[in-house]
Amino acid sequence: MAHCLLSVNEFIQDSFVPMIAVLGSSEAERVCRKNSLNLAELLRPFCRLTSEGHIRDPNNQLQTVKNLRICINNIETSTGQGSAHNRLLSEVVLSCQPQEGAAATVIRTAEYHLNLGGTTPWFEAYREAFLQTMPPSDHEFLHHYLACLLVVSSSEAVPVEQFLKLSQEQHRIQHSGEYSCPKWFIPNTLKYYVLLHDLSEGDEQRADMVYEDMKQRYGPQGCYLLKINSRSSSPEEGEQIPDPWSQYLHKQNPRNQDSMEPAANAAAPLGVPPEADCRDSAERVDPGPSTHPLQLDTDSVLTMSLEDVKKSSADPDDVADGAGSHGACLTLSDHDRIRQFIQEFTFRGLLPHIEKNIRQLNDQLVSRKGLSRSLFTATKKWFGGGKVPEKGVIEPKSTLGLQYPPEAPELQIRKMADLCFLVQHYDLAYSCYHTAKKDFLSDQAMLYAAGALEMAAVSSFLQGGAQRPYPAHYMDTAIQTYRDVCKNMVLAERCALLSAEILKSQGKYSEAATLLIKMTSEDSDLRSALLLEQAAHCFINMRNPMVRKFAFHMILAGHRFSKAGQRKHALRCYSQAMQVYQDRGWSLAEDHINFTIGRQSFTLGQPDSALLAFRQILINDSRQTATQQAAFLREYLYVVKSLLGGTDGRLPELPLPYIHSAATRVYFGHERRLAEGEKQAATHVSLDQEYDQELSLLWCRLEEQLVASANQGVLPNTFQPTQCCLNRQTDNLHHPLAVVQEPIIVEVTLRNPLKVALLLSDLSLLWRFTADAPSGGEVTVANDDAAAGQRDEPVTTETIREFYLGPEETKTARLKLLPHRTGQLNIVAVVYNLTSSHFGEPSSDPEGQQTSESMMVRGRQDLKIQGPRLNLTKEDKMLVRHGPDRRLEPIITPPMPLMEVFFLQFPTALLCGEIKKAYVEFCNVSAVALCGLWVASTHPDFFTFGSQDAATPPSPASSENCSAYVTVHAPPQPGAPAPETLVSAPDFSQASGVMEIPIRGGTLQPGESVQLPLWLRGPDQEGVHEINFLFYYESSEKSLRSSHRVLRHSVFICASRSLSVQASACRSSAAPHSSLDDRGGGGTLIFIDVENVNASESGVREFHIVQVSSSSQHWRLLKHINPDHSHDCRLSSRERAKLCFKATRCKPHEGADDVKEFTFSDLNLGNERIVSSSTPCGDFFFRCRQSSEFHQPARSSSSSRGQAPPPSDITSIAKKCNELDLHLIVIWKAYVVEDNKQRIVEGQLHVALQAVGQEASSLLPREEAQEMMLLRFRSESPPPALLPHPQLSQLIRTNLGYPETFSHHFLRDSLCLVPVTLTLSNCSLAQIDVIIDLQHRSSSSESLEVHASFAWVGQNQYKLQLGGREVVSLTLQACFFRAGVYNLNTPRVFAKPVEHAAMCESSQQTASPALIIINNSASPGGTLGGH
Q1: Which residue in 128, 467, 711, 1027 is a FRET match for 1248, CA 20 to 30 A apart?
Q2: CB neighbours (10 Å) of residue 980?
Q3: What is the per-residue DSSP string for 861-879?
Q4: What CA–CA distance (Å, rounded) separates 1061 from 913?
Q5: Closest CA to 95 of 783, 705, 724, 568
């Protein structure tokens, strides 16, 4: 329970006080009415004694009476109605509200932080009023009158006669039996005579004389002279007189009782029908099934909206005092006289009277038995036979049927106990209550027994000390008896209030809460609400606070407060409970609480709080039904409309639909046109594309290349990549740039969290524009409601008339702005009309159309985008800081050119290496001329615009055959050398893959367009390839903010396999002198394997190899070597052809050393020769050559794995020895059948031969994923010993000259000597040391068998030194012993550079054998042959 101002002892003592009646003459009442008070009201503020009193108990022990208070009331013979009593209690609770700024109690637990009210003064006021206005009962005497004050004015003619009349009137009221009320404690009621003297108008001497007569007649202890009204008029303005009556009068005055009735009728925020808050269950009308406080009644919500509540209810204000100032004629001296009178009456009249009656009751009870023992040892049989049943004796004794006569001993014991309790003699009172309890229980007088149990428990508690524990079971039994057996909820409530306060003082909050909850019922909403609230406070004040139970019971209390018409208290309860349920996942409970808070706040005239509560319902992810959510929305819209009240202020912030601000995207520029006929427009950037971070970085790199190329290779420091579409992943730290007269499209993501559809109308953007003034100043304009509709607005705003959002739908709205001036634009909010029509249940208003219009509200939602979190400095890492996000703050720049690009005849599928001619059209659709047109691509080898300097006009043959190549009629000539062309590399290639687009004049005027040819070549690898183009152009009018613009285009090309070309080179084994056309460089043979790897489904019938060309700075193809002299090479599916060519070195070129010149050599296999050095063949060669430099395969053979590289000089020698750097271009044609039509396609494949002995392929090797290296737990084998580099074995080329057959007569001469010439050629430019070993040291059995019959005669080993490109011949002699076939290729040749230590054997030693035939014949013969 909440903390109370009074302690539990003070509360109980003030609840049971001696009752004093007052009966005055009409003249006395007139004297009191001068102060706007009656007799009882005049005395009431002074009824608490400030000093102690004393009495003696029956054992003559002195007992102290401390802090005694008496209750003085006017005699009222009429019984008060229950409804008036209930209205009085409701008024008391309603008039006591929590004070603003009062100290709050802070409850902190591990999960909750609550701010609660420290006290509940409305509950204390209710409790005090309830106890003071309880009707008296026959089973107890605590509320019976002990004495009667007879008051007569001194201005009466004969005051003594008036006293006699008043005394007779009191006797008649008490003893005539005509009046059931009031009830009197004992038959001989104390009468105290008071002479009231008005000092302002009466004769004081006469009053004193009358008083002296009274003392003679009634005794000095039975009368008193009270002088009041020392002032004749009201106090002056400057004089301050205290008013102690104001705090007592409103608790007892049932004025304005009818004011609660309309409040109770109107207070039905949850659609609950109002109930009459009556305490007597017999007077209640059955209200039907009760409404659960956590149940949102859909029917009631829909039928009784806030509008209906507003129309049918008026909020009752706090009850104000209707009377004027009290005690106007009384001074402070009069206050003291009244206080002294009360003290004299109590000490000299009341307490002695009570003491005398206690002694009399004790003596009567003891003398009746005739024993001189104490009352406490008496038994029930002493007083048996004194009670008379009211009903027939044949009926069983029931609770209501048994009634004791006034003289019954049981009632005398109870009467004595009550007297002892009133004067704080709790020990004697407990003994009497305990004795009476047993008697009542034995007689089954349950009402009397319950009263005795109740007061026995209270007396036991008030005794103090450790005499006996508090008997809580007495209270529980009493409450159960009152409620269930006696059906008296008033007495049960009093018992529960007392017991709960006692349990709370002992720290037993759980037992107190349980007791209070049991007392809740349907007969009184106000009582149930107050008790539930106190139970909730018990839960929160426990040692371990039960927070959720507190919140739940506060909701129940708020619900009952609402039914009782206490809207302010209901709102307070719900608001305190909301602290527990908020943001805890209790969505349904949150909805109920917020909905109730909203309705109560609105009804109480707090629209801001109502708006906040309804808004909270809508922004949460509610799990309510669609009908319920529709009701929530309708209530919210009504509150918003009522709050606006037709004022032209700031638009309200609407919670629906939910705008995901971070997902807002901004697009600058016109939306791209789609394809027009055969034209395919550039894709560029659109809002329909998803953002790709990697692709964005790729575009940024391409733009950097373009900007650097356009600025002479230097990237400006102020460069910022172009971003046409901004989102949460882009860099939004800088202000984006927008162009005048080009639209700005803002895509806003809207989400409808409700299960009902939303209809938005007149959806547009709210902006603020700061124009660039010529004088340097700034002028800010906004399109708010006041300035909307002007013709000269700097920005045109597009409005979406209707925007439909389905239930729980997420949808994007694209809002457009068109700036007309330069300056700074800030997009601040979205404005729209939100309506409740077209969804939910239909309104109960018969004028449905009017209701639909009234539910439309115009509002806004601000677009607040939080930037990325900063993480650069230490402070950023320690704190949570966010950088700016300026995607909605564009800078409007002057006009810029705008280019559109269209592609014609652009393919979607190509064969690998296929050449296709297309066209590209550039259009300037702006009012500003553009220049400096460049293009960059991720695949620069895919396209070319041709070389303007090196291009050759197409020949008539190529135009007739629709060929993209430049062709020349040239029938093949066997053995004839290939024609060659010298080309300079800068004529074709451009740095870093960036190409300047050749347009005439270099400028495109506004509205002008130009069309250029574009050659395409299919990628070398099959599959789908994404090829990106970035076009760059500048404005002819230079601007400070933006100097260029870019246009993106992405295309997907499906490449299918065509031909596979495998090429290798090897040195010729012929003698150098036989190669007359070798020009001293050593002949090299080029072998080309061509295979048709095309799938048959592609429609290609066969491929024709029409030409093989070469391009190199040092080598060229010399002639075609074809054994069958067939020049026609046709390949069907999966067929393979092998071509052989001879290559030779080129002549040294004369010219600049820094200019690379390439020799193109063409060997055509048909009747036409294609000029490979012209466009497009030469362009694609150079572009492929540039791109291949970035992914050349590693030049290493299988024999080199695991060996360490030699020193750099030896490596360079070996590389130069085997260098080839010969690029082959295989040009083909194919016949393709599509749609029963045959067409010819042509293409070219490139193979780069880098060195002799290596193979090269036109197909790019597939990148295989590297496997993860596993951990090895055993030692690896030691590395092999270092050996000489394998390329050193190719430094020397050897050749043996000998006759193929030789005849010898072995019978005549057993030894046959044959001369053999060994020719050594140095393939490098370095000096080489050579060792020739002629001894047979082979371990192979086959080689021993072949040459075991012959031997080399003469010198067995030669040591030579060969200069660069030097050729040396040695004459050897081979000796044979018999005829046969012999292999002469047995000499071992070792070579090394002069400065190198290790020798390496020539690789030619393992070549094909050199066989000679020795015949056993006398005939000489043989012809010299070479091998």
Answers
A1: 1027
A2: 18
A3: EE-----PBP-SSHHHHHS
A4: 11
A5: 568
- 542: tokens are 């426990």
Name 31's bridge partners.
none
Which of 565-583 are b and which e, b meaning 16 or more Cβ less than 10 Å from the residue's Cβ?
Answer: bbbbbbbbbbbbbbbbbee
In the numeric block, which tokens belong to residue 319? 């009850």
Residues 395 and 405: their CA atoms lie apart, in Å, by: 19
For the segment 558-610, what is each residue's pLDDT rounded down to a tens digit? 999 999 999 999 999 998 888 888 888 888 888 888 899 998 888 888 888 88
Q: At what angle do helices 351-369 and 409-422 cross, to 10 degrees?
A: 150
CA distances 922 to 343, 869, 919, 931, 946, Å, are 113, 43, 10, 12, 17
Q: Is residue 52 packed enough to be buried (19+ CB in 10 Å), middle (13-18) or exposed (0-12)?
A: exposed
Among 39-48, 981-990, 994-1003, 1247-1256, which range has the highest average pLDDT?
A: 39-48
Q: Report the alpha-carbon distance of residue 381 to residue 363 in Å, rounded.
A: 18
Backbone angles phi, psi at 163, to 5 degrees: -60, -40
Q: How do residues 1065-1121 score in pLDDT, each as one tens digit?
A: 887 766 655 444 444 445 788 889 999 888 766 678 788 999 999 988 888 888 888
> Cα(1099)–Cα(935) distance, rounded to whole angstroms?
34
- Rg over alpha carbons for the chain, rounded to the nearest Å, is 59
How close are the terminal C-alpha atoms of the chain, in Å?
Answer: 119
Contacts of 16 (CB under 8 A, 6+ apart): 142, 421, 422
DSSP states of 92-153: HHHH--PPTT--EEEEE-SS-EEEEESB-HHHHHHHHHHHHTPPP-TT--TTSEEEEEEEEE
HEC string of 974-999?
A: CCCCCCEEEEEHHHCCCHHHEEECCC
Instruction: List Cα–Cα distances, 1310 to 49, 1305, 1379, 1421, in angstroms.
Output: 166, 8, 10, 18
Mean pLDDT, rounded, for 980-1003: 74
CA-wise closest residue to 94 among 276, 268, 261: 261
**Residue 535: its H or E element:** helix 525-540
Q: Could you tell me the CA-to-CA distances from 1204 to 1285, 1286, 1290, 1392, 1401 in Å, in that order?
A: 8, 11, 18, 17, 18
pLDDT at residue 1196, rounded to an integer: 39
pLDDT for 1347 beyond 80: no
**Mean of the per-residue pLDDT values for the chain?**
79
Q: How does residue 274 score in pLDDT terms, banded at 50, 70 and 90?
A: very low
Helix axes 547-563, 567-581, angle to 10 degrees: 160
Short-list 213, 314, 211, CA closest to 259? 314
The pLDDT score that the predictor gives to residue 800 is 94
**Per-residue model confidence (pLDDT) at position 310:** 47
DSSP state of 1194: P
- Asked whether 31 and 196 are in contact (CB, 8 A), the reply is yes
Tell me what the mean pLDDT of segment 123-141 comes to: 89
**pLDDT attached to residue 1214:** 65
Structure tokens at 548: 């959720």
Main-chain phi, psi angles of 76, to 5 degrees: -125, 120
Rounded Cα distance, 832 and 559, in Å: 37
Q: Between helices 472-480 and 446-462, what is the axis angle to 10°?
A: 150
Handedness of CA 814, 818, 824, 830 (dihedral sign): negative
Structure tokens at 853: 């219009």
DSSP 825: E
What does the angle CA 1044 – CA 1047 – CA 1049 come to, to the nearest 5 degrees? 160
**Interval 107-117: pLDDT, tens:** 777 677 777 77
For 286-336, give the DSSP string. Answer: P--SPPPTT---HHHHHHS-HHHHHHH--PPPPPPP-S--S-TT--HHHHH
Percentage helix, strand, coil, to 5, in the chain? 30, 25, 40
